[in-house]
Amino acid sequence: MRDLADDLWGDLQPAASRRLLLAAVEAFAKNGYHNTTTREIAAAAGMSPAAVYVHYKSKAELLRAISQIGHEAAYSTLEAAVVRHAGDPVECLKAAVAAFTSWHARNYLVARVIQDELDSLDIADYEVILPLRRRTTGLVTNILEAGQAAGVFAIDDIALTTRGIFSMIIDTARWRRPTTRLSPHQVGIAYANLVLRMVDTKPVRTDAEKSRSA
After folding, report:
1. Phi and psi, residue 26, nearest 5°
2. Is 79 exposed, middle or buried (0-12, 13-18, 19+ CB in 10 A)?
3. CATH code that applies to domain 59-198
């Protein structure tokens, strides 16, 4: 996790709060939220059990912080890819899937926690995260709808296809390991190509070509 610290929590201060959050990510990813104690988190961070409550009110607050930071980072990555390729549904979908998959492969421990422990969030914390998840899903749904309208995608069920795309990407965090042969970037490109085949990508035809085939 040390190589991921600057990506996600470089701005988190003080340093002790950051160490506790990193320790919690590793513990939750390995043992699950409910099977992890604050004492174990403190020990992994090299701190006393009481030190946890100086920086976080509870184990639940640690999970909320991890979930919010992780979801916001993942959304920002996806949004940036969409904005860069707006106007071209094929390139936009390819870039979006590649970027989102790469993020999950690179930050697989964090991604595993924010996905697998979603139901462990307190109700109030879940209500904060839910709109962000819907916005994330909406970005991909909008690309699919734009491609369908432009005639470059052939999709029977956009909602189900969106769900399938996210399920495939999110699962990356569950099988990813440091020893995985492909790099996060390579996994992202491979998944992007798979998704393009899922939506039956078609070449864009000019008006003249459409007239000749009419």
Report:
1. -60, -45
2. middle
3. 1.10.357.10
